[in-house]
Amino acid sequence: MGRFAPCSPTLTAQRGIWGIGITFEPFLxxxxxxxxxxxxxxxxxxxxxxxxxxxxxxxxxVTLLAALLTASFYPxxxxxxxxxxxxxxxxQFGLNFTLRLDGFAWIFAMLITxxxxxxxxxxxxxxxxxxxIPRFFAFLLAFMGAMLGIVISGNIILISVFWELTSIFSxxxxxxxxxxxxxxxxxxxxxxxxxxxxxxxxxGMLLLGNIVGSYDLDKVLAxxxxxxxxxxxxxxxxxxxLGALTKSAQxxxxxxxxxxxxxxxxxxxxxxxxxxxxxxxFLLVRLWPVLSGTxxxxxxxxxxxTLTLLLGAYFAMFQRDLKGLLAYSTISHLGLITTLLSLxxxxxxxxxxxxxxxxxxxxxxxxxxxxxxxxxTGTRDMRRLSGxxxxxxxxxxxxxxxxxxxxxxxxxNGFLSKEMFFAEAVETHADxxxxxxxxxxxxxxxxxxxxxxxxxxxxVFFGPKPTDLPIATPHxxxxxxxxPIEFLVIVCLVVGIVPAYSIGPFLQMAVESVLGxxxxxxxxxxxxxxxLPLLMSILALAGGALLYILLRGYFARCEDGPPFLRNLRGxxxxxxxxxxxxxxxxxxAESRMGTRNLQPQLRWVVACGFLAGLLPLYVSGFExxxxxxxxxxxxxxxxxxxxxxxSLAAAYMAKYHRLAALVMLGGVGLIVCITFxxxxxxxxxxxxxxxxxxxxxxxxxGLRWLPKRNPDMGAFISLxxxxxxxxxxxxxxACGVGMSFVAFAVMTMPVPDTIATYFLxxxxxxxxxxxxxxxxxxxxxxFDTLGEIAVLGVVALTVFxxxxxxxxxxxxxxMPEQQRIQNRFDEERPDRAPGDTVRDYLAVPSLIMQWLFxxxxxxxxxxxMRGHDMPGGGFSAGLTMSxxxxxxxxxGGTRWAEDRLRILPLRWMGGGLLTALATGVGAWFLGxxxxxxxxxxxxLPLIGKMPAATALLFDLGVFSLVVGSTVxxxxxxxxxSVRIRRVRSHDAAKTEES
Amino acid sequence: xxxxxxxxxxxxxGCGVWLILRPRTYQVIVGLSLLSYAVNLFIFxxxxxKSNLPPILGDGVVSSTLSDPVPQALVLTAIVIGFATTALFxxxxxxxxxxxxxxxxxxxxxxx
Lengths: 994, 112
Prior knowledge:
heterodimer; A: mainly alpha; B: mainly alpha; Helix Hairpins
């Protein structure tokens, strides 16, 4: 089937596996993807379990089920079929949640789930008693889900999303032993490198989608020529390569992988051999049909690949740590795959896919074997390990077979793909130095890999008895711990001996799904006669063995790391860069440009604001036009003359007499309120008036804890101080004058046709209210209001939290002077007890305030009810209600009020927010978008006809939250005087005790 | 009307800016309040400064003669949020004064 024909969304398998025509399979794809994540959640939920078997059971069942499910897709994929699942995600941006399974994705999914299952089984025995098991399996399963996501995504942005997820879960898995600083550093490095790579990948994918005009993988794969000839091809290629090469640990980004070896070994076996690091090359194969074949591709990918191939193998020879050796070997083998992909020939791509599978099998088993050695002997240092064959004969045999496969010994799967690599290396693809050097590089790297494989086997299993092992007598692990290795090694052998009958059909399916009609003829047999590749293999084997014999002595005593390049450590460079950027430059920038003082910051903010306001005028010119005065109402002018005087006086008195400043500020507020009435905005006037009241009370409560009034009105001011004042004054005047001009210009401009017309026309028909302002708040722009009340709630909670541990300044600790005088008066009179005067104070107003309580509440209900049609609504009703509560506090004092009235502001707030949310969500159930409102008029006894819109319910939420927040803030502040008294007596008792 | 209102806005802005650049916490609170009055009036003024317009839809009221509801809706929530931020700011300053023992916005009287 033509692979490049764009698949229509409905193209699914023809035969359902349940035999019911079409087909559950697309949905089963979702199940397959969801399964690991659900398993992860389930394991996470039993986080506190002490059972060691339950998490393993969950993880094992999930991975096994996923593997079986994947396997069951196989028949549906025959003949180049592709399974697709489409769901709209953000269609307006061309983003769909598309899952897509073809032969190549299938074989990878199989790899992920099958090795995943083996790793779970292995980890069951590997993890020690003290490790938190559920956390491990939760992360492992989530990682598996993310990896499956990359493989079966049918949308290139979705691939990026899962790509990031794998970075994050790999971070969590590497740092699993988070008490270990190496693990933390390694995890951070892996996250930084792969995270930056992931970001580049996203950019690349966006560019690619931009070139193609769609993010759909099928569409992308169908437009290879468009992509390769596009001007943006090179940037897109570079960004995508940055993503893929960092993930697959290719030179020069390879260094994170050896540092990630601090992870538990099952993680290394799963992530760092079979899955995570394969994601990069997976993506290269996935996009190979559209990106490869150009000169740029050959050089960029080829250079990275060959350098990685050679350097990885070279570095691997000189590692002391078993896992370090395996990590560098992995890097080298990934380099081999990358090199193959760079060649741009279909046959090389077949070899690359084949080698990806082979490498996963032998490397995963080698990692597990290294884990067993570590587990049984307590060390991974190859200088201490020796002669383990006598203790671990079975593990040793298995490891030997696997490393023979790694070295490319015939009759094993590693040999086959390596042979194919050699054959391709000899061919000329893009005539250049790199191409001509490739056969030599390939043979040399092959020899190196023989050397490090030999070193691994010979040092660890042969030679004299080990002398200084942490665990003196190692013994074979439990059988089931060894089982995964046995299984994988058998796969190595079977594939190596009868490839055409074992891996053949699967490989053919995978290759066809990538290459389509360019699929080449290839032969999967062991024997191709005496030819150049075989000669190269023999040379590599012999040369590698010889090299090992020559270097044996050196290996035994050398330092860690390879000669010549020991100092070239990517890790060190990385850390230096990190320190420079995140520490030195940051410090420099902070010391040069930052300040810890508030005033300069505010000054800059104001100055920038002023310039930002000026700039458009400067650029587009200030049009001097004839202003049309609407005349000046003398009363209005007189009122604002007072208002301006009050505002100037408040500004002057704020330093010297706080109470006076507050009174004048309140005066300005009232004049603003009257202005709203004057200018036909009754809703605003009501709200302003009520807010003015609560703000004044709030600041009055705050004044109690501010310092006493400043008596020195005419104190001496230094020259510097004078200069500062002058500068601020200039800034203030400039801002004031500027605002005046802009305000005047804006107000005298003819008002264009705005969205207001829409609201006015539709408020009654659609929102069912005559008060358009309220309809906008609770209906048209209900979502904004929801956000705003959430902010209000957050602020109230913050205030509450800040005041819980509030310690006033020492000079505000004493009782206020007024109370002291009153108490002294009480003490001097024999017929009065202390506190009587306070109680008698304002006796009549107190009584009135108490009586007013029900009246105000009724008023609040009234304002609330009429809000949809008349000025009022949830905000103003809420404020009124809170004032009702506030008056009770004022009238009787905190204790009195709380003895009689239990307000639970937190409940009011929570209830309000939930009501508002529930109203919004309710619309969903009726099939409407969030916060769609419905209304009709209902007849109520006594009150009459009344609009019953769901918006009213939303407004009820607003009301309740406003009440809760306002009361919470004010009461928390008012409570401080009671609390401080308690704190004071507590402190006094303490000092007495000591 | 526009002239008066815009001058008033300018004066309140000027006073507000002057106050928020002062070193005492209380001055900053008063300054922010004045600034928020000015900004609210400004936003409100964008909708046109007209008195004696019907604010409520009623029978026989032509919708184009109504006062502009959009700036009103914006300012209404701004007023309430303004109260909340004033409260937050006040409490932060009280707490900071409790911790540092003085009334300077930076928590210390003299600059280093």
